[in-house]
Design goal:
- The protein has four helices and no strands.
- The model has no long low-confidence stretch (mean pLDDT 92).
- It has 90 residues and is mainly α.
- Helices cover 48% and strands 0% of the residues.
- The chain has a domain of 33 residues.
Amino acid sequence: MPKKPKVYMPTEAEDQEINRGIAADPDTYVPSDEAFARMKRRGRPRSDAPKVQLTVRYDRDVVDAFKAEGPGWQSRMNDALRDWLKEHRA
């Protein structure tokens, strides 16, 4: 697994310089509390059937096989389980 990059926080002086640059930028816009409250939420719309988050353990070879196919492996695992359920419902 790749190492996470280190996060370097600016010093107080660097932070002040950054904020001065932001304040001097004519394109900077800071909305009022009312304007911020009226803003629409962006991003993926809420699903009518949200997924359930849980912790589960699978054998390494099973996970590796799905991951080997590339991005979307979790969705493919979900689809494989759904297909299995079609044939094996109690």
